[in-house]
């Protein structure tokens, strides 16, 4: 889990089939020393994991990525200059225990990451 080490959740709201969260990056996290030493950038895999972790907290249920139909990295996230991220996850249940989502991760007004995916709710984490 990256929560409480790489980032913290400042706000979280789950209503009307949408999750809204404000996330605060930890610019001193060790991952940024290697990605990249002179120009720290949030790794795409971490953005994907952050979305999953926020979903699990909002649903109070573990989820597993089944299929990412679209994943776009649109702009770099520098934790030193832009540590506050806004996450929106719109979701709908498409089959029993399967959730289709559309997610965006923003730095201010700039969309940094977009995801359209299918997740499966699972019993064990």
Name the features.
3-hydroxyacyl-ACP dehydratase; single chain; HotDog_dom_sf; ApeI-like; 125 residues; globular; Thiol Ester Dehydrase, Chain A; alpha+beta; 2 helices
Reported for the largest beta sheet, the result is: 6 strands, antiparallel
Overall SS class:
alpha+beta
Order of strands across the main sheet: 1-2-4-5-6-3
Calculate Rg over CA atoms: 14 Å
pLDDT average, as an integer? 95
Instruction: Quote the distance from N terminus to C terminus.
Output: 11 Å
Number of DSSP-assigned strands: 6
Shape: globular
Write down the secondary-structure element order. Answer: EEHHEEEE
Tell me the layout of helices and strands.
Layout: E1 7-15, E2 18-25, H1 31-34, H2 44-59, E3 62-73, E4 84-95, E5 98-107, E6 110-122
Antiparallel strand pairs: 1-2, 2-4, 3-6, 4-5, 5-6
Describe it.
The chain contains two helices and six strands; from the N terminus they run ββααββββ. Strand 1 (7-15) and strand 2 form a beta hairpin. The protein has a six-stranded antiparallel β-sheet with strand order 1-2-4-5-6-3. The chain has one domain (7-122): Thiol Ester Dehydrase, Chain A, CATH 3.10.129.10. By secondary structure, the chain is an alpha+beta fold. The relative contact order is 0.22.
Short description:
By secondary structure, the protein is of the alpha+beta class.
């Amino acid at each position: 889990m990256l929560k409480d080490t790489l980032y913290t959740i400042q706000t979280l709201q789950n209503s009307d089939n949408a999750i809204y969260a404000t996330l605060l990056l930890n610019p001193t996290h060790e991952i940024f020393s290697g990605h990249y030493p002179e120009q720290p950038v949030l790794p795409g895999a971490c953005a994907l994991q952050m979305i999953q972790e926020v979903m699990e907290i909002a649903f109070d249920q573990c989820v597993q990525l089944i299929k990412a139909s679209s994943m776009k990295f649109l702009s770099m996230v520098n934790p030193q200059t832009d540590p506050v991220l806004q996450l929106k996850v719109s979701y709908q249940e498409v089959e029993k225990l399967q959730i289709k989502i559309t997610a965006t991760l923003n730095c201010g007004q700039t969309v940094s990451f977009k995801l359209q995916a299918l997740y499966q709710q699972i019993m064990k984490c």
